[in-house]
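Dear colleague,

Following up on yesterday's call, I've attached the two folding results inline so they're easy to grep. Please treat them as preliminary; we haven't cross-checked anything against experimental data yet. The first protein's sequence and structure tokens come first.
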Amino acid sequence: MPKCPKCDKEVYFAERVTSLGKDWHRPCLKCEKCGKTLTSGGHAEHEGKPYCNHPCYSAMFGPKGTFWQSANRPPLSLSLSPPPPPYCVDLPHLFAGFGRGGAESHTFK
């Protein structure tokens, strides 16, 4: 008679749920993190232990961050306006010496 991997008691045919290549008692087949009762084949596995697909398995063993962060890129800016291109010129700084009238009032020598 097979034994349940969770409680180590005998599993009778009427109460058997087969998953991960083992026979479990229906109440014993639970997510290792949150304790949600799982169905046969409707869950994820890590190191022989059952986990619900979402959110437990994804949060614990799924990819972390985003594609941009995983590729060693700088974090995305949440600003509504895009940053200026590196070749932009600071126009107010360029015309600062021309006075109130702008370039027209400046006398060139």
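Below is the second protein, in the same order (sequence, then structure):
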Amino acid sequence: MTARPDPALAGPSPRLEVLDPSAPHAFVTPTKCINDGPDVARFLVSKAYRDIGLFLMQLNRAMCPRKSTGPDGKDKFTTYQIGSDLETKPAASVRRLQDMLAKINSFIDQAPPDQGPRRFGNVSYRKWFALLEEHLPAILREVLPEPLHHRGTSDTSGQTPATTELSAYLLGGFGSAQRLDYGTGHELSFFAFLGGLWKLGYFQDGEQNGTIERNIVLGVVEPYLRVVRRLILTYTLEPAGSHGVWGLDDHSFLPYIFGSAQLTRAITEDEPMPLEGSLLRATKPSFIVKPEYVEEERKRNMYFSAVGFINDVKKGPFWEHSPILFDVSGIKDGWGKINKGMVKMYNAEVLSKFPVVQHFPFGSLFSWEADPDAPPPQQSIHMVNQPPTQGSMMPPPPVMGGAGMAAPWAQGGGTSMPPPPPGGRAAWGPAHPVSRPQAPSASGRTDQRGVPSSNNAPWMRSSDRPSG
């Protein structure tokens, strides 16, 4: 397989390659390869894992604010927000995907929720899913340009078209009709659908300077999340592969990565992704516990949009139903630190967890083949705790020293994380856990998040110092 590299984004950031359309390519029907816990270690050195990570970091860096020098010699800052022209006036390729999502969303009106008693999920979701399956071939015909729609087909019988691979990821991106659930594994499937389109050259009509990546995030990923949130609310879909209260979010992860990137310290086109600092006058992370700020910021920022949805569906103190997000809100090193941590956490809690990735199918676009440049897998506490092969009595392999699997695309080195500690803290969060008292403190003093103050959290007394 011959690959043609894309024009690289300026700066030290690799991009996912686009397949050479003139070179022959054998598409295959994606199949399940992760059947038990040890298979996850094999996945972490696969070409699929490499390509997912490259595409994630490519889009992540594109969402970081940019800094340039204006005609007057002063710094000029450019941010990328929900509702901007990047979403409302995107490239034609993105517009077609928006139309696709609008059609998928309309199927909900054709499958109203069942009014009968139920314990988990609404059975009418299966009717909605059947509509999606039925119309999927026509949907892809409308989305894909003619050459792409017939890519991989010829007069030779037995060839698999590219649409077979794309269909598997698109259909897998909207939950499970069998289990009536939705989670980060389904979100990953839709992300792979977009990555597959990228590799096929679908997005070549956009501006190849970071603009098309922003079109994808704001013009496709955010609208996709709106459709998913409506599905969850309409059919009361169960969280899939959730950690419960100790998870970041019951259903999604990507908006926290891209949303934190929107608020990081601004960079020039030649700078790498910042690992700390915030955009000048950025909304503070601590404001996620203030509903009035969330309601305003969710219109512009993906992180706050995700938190706003949590507020829509959960009641009670934020620190009680979302302790990990609450803990992250106390970080004082800026949105860059949060973004770095979210990438590491995605690698550890999504890509490295058997319950999440077990249903991900592998084809030619996201291949199960070993990445020849991947470092040898190391056993971390994560890998030791994976479910074993059914019936296997083999003892777990020894835990190796170091940080575990190091994703070559991940920021900050090793990405392995231990299980959440009893306090529910994010492992990369503040050095001291936040006290979560059941009643206000005797002094009656509260911190800026409206939580009773605690002498055990000195980091809460420092100030955010955004930098531009």
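For the second protein, one point worth flagging: The chain has a mean pLDDT of 82.

Best wishes,
A.L.
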